[in-house]
Write a structure and sequence with these properties.
The chain has an eight-stranded mixed β-sheet with strand order 3-4-2-5-1-6-7-8, with helices on both faces. It is about 60% helix and about 5% strand. It has helices at about 5-25, 45-55, 95-105, 110-125, 170-180, 200-210, 230-240, 260, 265-280, 295-310, 315-335, 340-365, 370-375, 380-400, 405-420, 430-470, 475-510, 515-545, 550-570, 575-630, 635-640, 645-670, and strands at about 35-40, 70-75, 85-90, 135-145, 150-155, 185-195, 215-220, 250.
Length: about 675
């Protein structure tokens, strides 16, 4: 634990740094910011606890806690300075400028702040269909008595709705609580009324679901003055972390009751009264001072949040650097401020068109020198095309017929019986049978190739469109024209590729039967069979070549007769159906593998030439032709650079966000000099 002196020194700048991060709104699932969130039932004493800590008199009976989260940012000021506070409404809430300014004006009275909080609740309710919002109201409070601490007050758990309240609020609140609890850097401040059976308190069970080991949950026991006499020992066991233990333990607090609230005493008076209550109580006085009282709770929370932030400094630095990189990429896509002079517009137009067309041609051939494909895989067009073609190759291989299966053998045998002989293919009884057999089976391959072509066209369209949107986001007229050019040329490539597919299948079926590679494959089969027959003959000859066996002339005659018989078996017109079927299987197997190879190679070449090369070149030619027209006409040039007003607003917003992130990085370097950078998961 940090000493009091170190805590005083470290707390304020660290809490200011965390508040700076929260104010930027850059928190997400990848970049959780350490924070403390307050959870509890509507009747748990949560609002009274927050009032004791902050001095803010939350309006009663307005249902504020069911409207939205409230982030209370507290700052300790020098003794004697005036209490001051202000409200910030969610930026997404639709409200008039006058009303926003009235609610967000600074006040110096807790009573004024309470009234404005009621008005803020009304604005939130009116802006939502069910009177609830997940956006946060921010309340900034500064005074000599408030701690340096930021708390997120979340809506209390709702089990039943009141009159006029939508039942959807129950689900909305539950989702919001789960979202905050699930964030790994959120300290769960679970407010538990001490006058209830702890075993039935829902909030601890909810916390346990997201913080299984209890490493970021603190229990706050409220209403000790309402405990039944004789039940104090049970609460004492819980406060001492004996029963329902939490690694961060419990703190017992006593908030002001209604009578004390009616007296409207100061925050200082309230804290003194609480301390006196615990000191004089026969049971609670036995608790250690760090286990009781609002002041002890605030010190504990400050210790925890500062220590947590310091420990996570290297990870925060990593996330800030990643955010800056993302923002810079976004700013690059939004472009710079538009030029005013015609000469500057022409230079920019040439630069934009050249960057797009050159990058498109480069990524189509696998040249990723541009920063966009270097940093983002989605722009690696050639890689995506190769991956798709490799998938096609595997699909073609997997769809080869089962030549050695009984079903295919029966079908082939039947076709061989009823098919008339035609042009003779070496080693195959009927070329017509070969062509008809293959043609029927190739339909499956044709569908696969047609699907592949459409997938590649879609990929080209998506990548080229994303490239144009990334480079031309700030120039809607230019973007629209480029997208139209892309569509026209991709459609033309689609028509060419469809014709190519038809031609490929016709050419493959007709030409492969005389292909030298196929003939060589068939001859190889013949040679293998003849070699097998020769080995059989030689084996018999070896057995008979010995003393008292066949003479040399008899052996020579035997070998000649056996080889002649083998030749007749394999080449005579009337050899048996089993050998004919076997040879047909072998020939078809060779033919199919040749077709698979030819179709894949032809398809790959067609995609390379028609789509990746010629289409990219044609797009460049069309855009360069249009570029000359734009350059020659000042009116067209002005129309090209008519900027969308929303883009200018986005550019300004991201520019400010970049400045905020850079300022946060500088603040972190001051808090942790030479702070290292650690990615999530590293240590």
């Amino acid at each position: 634990m940090l000493s009091t002196e170190v805590l005083e020194e470290k707390a304020k700048p660290w809490l200011g740094f965390l508040e700076e991060l929260l104010r930027m709104g850059i928190e997400d699932n990848e970049f959780p910011i350490p924070q403390i969130a307050v959870f509890g039932d509507q009747s748990s004493g949560k609002s009274s606890l927050l009032e004791s800590i902050s001095g803010i008199p939350f309006p009663k009976g307005t249902g504020l806690v069911t409207k939205c989260p409230t982030r209370i940012s507290m700052t300790t000021t020098a003794t004697g300075e005036q209490w001051r506070a202000s409200i910030q409404l969610p930026s997404t809430i639709c409200v008039s400028n006058d009303e926003r300014e009235r609610i967000e004006r600074g006040v110096t009275s807790p009573t004024e702040l309470s009234a404005l909080l009621s008005d803020a609740a009304g604005v939130i309710s009116a802006a939502s269909s069910n009177g609830f919002s997940s956006e946060s109201i921010v309340v900034n409070v500064a005074s000599p008595l408030t701690p340096n601490l930021t708390l997120v007050d979340l809506p209390g758990i709702i089990r039943t709705t009141t009159a006029g309240q939508s039942r959807s609020v129950i689900d909305d609140v539950d989702r919001l609580l789960k979202r905050y609890m699930a964030q790994p850097e959120t300290i769960i401040l679970a407010v538990i009324p001490a006058n209830q059976d702890i075993a039935t308190v829902d909030i601890l069970e909810r916390a346990h679901q997201h913080d299984v080991h209890g490493e970021r949950t603190i229990g706050v026991l409220t209403k000790p003055d309402l405990i039944d006499q004789g039940a104090e020992d049970e609460i004492l066991a819980i406060a001492n972390n004996v029963r329902k233990p939490l690694k961060m333990g419990y703190v017992l607090v006593k908030n002001r009751n209604q009578l004390e609230l009616n007296r409207a005493g100061s925050l200082h008076d309230s804290l003194q009264a609480e301390e006196q209550y615990f000191q004089s109580h026969p049971i609670w006085s036995r608790l250690a001072t760090e286990q009781r009282g609002t002041k002890a709770l605030c010190e504990k929370l400050t210790q925890l949040i500062v220590k947590r932030a310091m420990d996570r400094g290297p990870y925060i630095k990593y996330h800030l650097q990643q955010k800056r990189k993302d923002i810079e990429q976004k700013l690059a896509s939004l472009g710079t401020d538009l030029p005013k002079m015609e000469s500057e517009k022409r230079k920019l137009l040439v630069k934009l068109i050249s960057r797009f067309t050159q990058t498109l041609r480069q990524i189509a051939i696998g040249d990723y020198r541009d920063p966009l494909p270097q940093n983002q895989v989605i722009f690696r067009l050639k890689y995506a095309a190769n991956t798709t073609l490799q998938g096609l190759q595997q699909e073609l291989k997997q769809n080869l017929p089962d030549f050695h299966g009984d079903v295919y053998a029966q079908k082939l045998s039947k076709d061989m019986v009823y098919t008339m002989r035609g042009r003779e293919l070496p080693g195959f009884g009927s070329t017509r049978l070969l062509l008809s057999t293959v043609a029927n089976e190739l339909d499956t391959w044709k569908m696969s190739i047609e699907d592949c072509v459409q997938h590649l066209l879609t990929t080209y369209a998506d990548v080229s469109s994303s490239l144009s949107q990334t480079l031309m986001a700030a120039y809607p007229y230019l973007l629209r024209h480029i997208q139209e050019t892309l569509t026209t040329n991709i459609q033309a490539s689609d028509e060419v590729l469809q014709r190519r597919v038809e031609e490929m299948f016709l050419h493959t079926i007709e030409s492969a039967s005389t292909d030298e590679e196929l003939i060589a494959s068939i001859n190889s089969i013949r040679f293998q069979r003849f070699d097998q027959a020769l080995q059989e003959v030689l084996a018999v000859a070896k057995e008979q070549n010995g003393p008292g066996q066949s003479t040399k002339d008899e052996l020579k005659q035997h070998v000649t007769e056996m080889l002649g018989y083998a030749y007749i078996q394999q080449h005579a017109m009337g050899y048996g159906p089993s050998l004919q079927l076997e040879e047909a299987r072998a020939v078809l197997s060779s033919y199919w593998r040749l077709c698979e190879k030819k179709l894949y190679e032809d398809m790959s070449a067609a995609i390379d030439v028609v789509l990746l090369q010629r289409c990219s070149e044609k797009i460049e030619q069309d855009l360069n032709s249009q570029l000359q027209l734009w350059m020659a006409d000042p009116l067209l040039l002005a129309e090209v650079f008519a900027e969308d007003p929303t883009v200018a607003v986005e550019r300004q917003r991201y520019g400010q966000l970049k400045s905020d992130v850079e300022a946060a990085l500088k603040s972190l370097d001051r808090l942790i000099p030479f702070c290292p950078v650690l990615a999530p998961g590293s240590s």
